[in-house]
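Memo to structure team: turn this sequence into structure tokens by end of day. - J.P.
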Amino acid sequence: MTETHQPRHKVFVSYHHANDQNYRDFFERLFTDVHDIMISKSVQIGEIDPDLKTDTVRQKIRDNYLRDSTVTVVLIGEETWKRKHVDWEIGSSIRSTQNNPD
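Reply from structure team:
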């Protein structure tokens, strides 16, 4: 019997880094390691200097992570609304641009 593999989605996870890192880690382990149905395109701790200007951080996220992702998942926690990049990441995920067509 031949086993067929479905294509894996490239998933960007938007979340409140300070409060929900464990949930993000669990989500990614579950769907990458256990079920093998996704490729993480999320920002990993230490990949972007938090002292950079907001516009620079957004440009890096857009060009290095969102551009190649096929799905954006938003983990909603008690203080997600306080995270300054969540709204922007959602908007950038659905906006059609030269680097991020429909």
